[in-house]
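Same chain as my last thread, 152 residues:
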Amino acid sequence: MTADTIAAPRSPRTPARKSGPNLEKWGWIYMRVSGVALIILIFGHLFVNLMLGEGISGIDFAFVAGKFASPFWQWWDVLMLWLALIHGANGMRTIVNDYVTHETTRRVLVWALWLSAGFLIVLGTLVVFTFDPCLGIESSSTDWLIETCAAL
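reply #2:
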């Protein structure tokens, strides 16, 4: 070998990319876009809940019931829930792929991540859209909620 020649690197040969969509690229793009969207959604959520009105002392069942009565806030919270859970599960998937070397263990952990994220997404979405503040209200009380539920 002469002084002008550079030795070949010792890195292993990378396998050829499979045909089809590049899911890692789309996962990377999703993490960036959802991160920016989550910053907007979370700070909007915190601003409305803590800065407007009575602050933290004003957050009670009535506040949540009033917020979930509006389709705008329902969709705001569901979008925040979906983006956060998928963002977190994708980040955990990346960590599992980086540190778990056994293929079967990695596959089981990634499946467990996506199943738990999917379960929480379904459960959270059901809670937001089926929230009923009048469920289980007794008619003997003179609370504001009783009056509101009686009007419905």
